[in-house]
Amino acid sequence: MPRAPRRPPQLRGRVFRGSTAVSRGLLTRNDLRSSAWRPLFRDVYADAQLTVTHTIRCAAVGRWLVPPGTAIAGRAAAGLYGCPSTSAGAPIDVLVSTDSRIGPTNGIRVHHGQIDPGDILDRAGITVTSPARTCWDVARWLDMVEAVVVIDALLALRLTTVPALREYALSRAGRRGWRSLLRSIDLVDAGAESPQESRTRVRLVLAGLPRPETQWVVADQGRFVARLDLAWPQFKVAVEYDGLWHDDPEQFHRDRRRLNRLLGGDWIVLHVTAKRLRDDFDGFLAEVKAALRTRAARSHDRARTWK
């Protein structure tokens, strides 16, 4: 019968430096390779029975892998603020001052830049970029769509506002990224309830469609009928992102029943999935354009915008 791996009580439920555990005689290098321990970064391990969260990973980076004054930044910072934009195991973005030096480390993306007063905060013992600085950085580091996804989420959490971000960008006019932040601000909407809703909306607008309303409520004689992800209420055209919400497979069917009630109210509801966004966005865009053109013609509005 194979021998159970060593699990010293001092390390159970903890994250630790492997070299420290070895030097203290708690483990050997061979012990670190056992199933009892999970490697997180170079020389950083966790008890395999510990649920490793994004916060735990960021704390490990800040404690052991970067110099003092380094801040968790970008998407990683947004994740610490509670935004659903950070995938498990994604590299951790860090921001270091221009005069600091840090070598490459697997699992970390290093960005150098000027850090202004107020740009970094302490959040539960972790040094992180402020919400405004996080928005600035994602506008510089990510493409337009993904930047807006992050900024939408920070706005929805009420961690910043559009006027505050605009002022932040204008106060840094001439520095790299200020125009990118302004362009992103023009596309944001705090009403988005998921990253995929944000991606759908921004891609449609960047493709030339008029900006839709988010979370539009449809009522009939004062009675609630439905709430729509994206809507052009003047044309009664809507887009719904189909996803499994709150780990509840039945929600999809409830949403479809709810939206079917709109058909009698003369609404066109177009559905899109992650696969469609990824593999056939042009086809979906053509369907939305066709629906808007049809309704615009019916209401005698000019439709040249969507040709």
Features:
3 domains, Endonuclease, Chain A, 20% strand, alpha+beta, three-stranded antiparallel beta sheet, 12 helices, 12 strands, 307 residues, elongated
What this model shows, in words?
The chain is α+β, with helices and mostly antiparallel strands. It folds into three domains: 9-47, no CATH class; 54-185, no CATH class; 195-306, Endonuclease, Chain A. Helix content is 39%, strand content 20%. The chain contains twelve helices and twelve strands. It has helices at residues 18-23, 29-32, 54-65, 74-80, 131-141, 144-156, 162-170, 178-185, 195-206, 249-263, 274-279, 281-298, and strands spanning 15-17, 37-41, 44-47, 71-72, 92-96, 108-112, 120-123, 126-129, 213-220, 223-232, 237-241, 268-272. The strands form four sheets. Strands 9-10-11-12 form a four-stranded mixed sheet. Strands 1-3-2 form a three-stranded antiparallel sheet. A hairpin with a 2-residue loop joins strand 7 and strand 8. Helix 5 (131-141) packs antiparallel against helix 6 (144-156). The radius of gyration is 24 Å and the shape is elongated. It starts with 14 loop residues before the first strand and ends in a 9-residue tail after the last helix.
Biggest sheet, spatial arrangement of strands: 9-10-11-12
H/I helix tally: 12
Strand content: 15-25%
* Tertiary shape: elongated
Averaged pLDDT, please?
89
Structural class by sheet pairing and helices? alpha+beta
Total discrete domains: 3
SSE string: EHHEEHEHEEEEHHHHHEEEHEHH
- Whole-angstrom Rg: 24 Å
In percent, how helical is the residue content?
25-40%
Rounded to the nearest angstrom, the distance between the terminal CA atoms is 72 Å
**Low-pLDDT runs:** none
Q: Main β-sheet, in a few words?
A: 4 strands, mixed
How many strand units?
A: 12
Oligomeric status = single chain
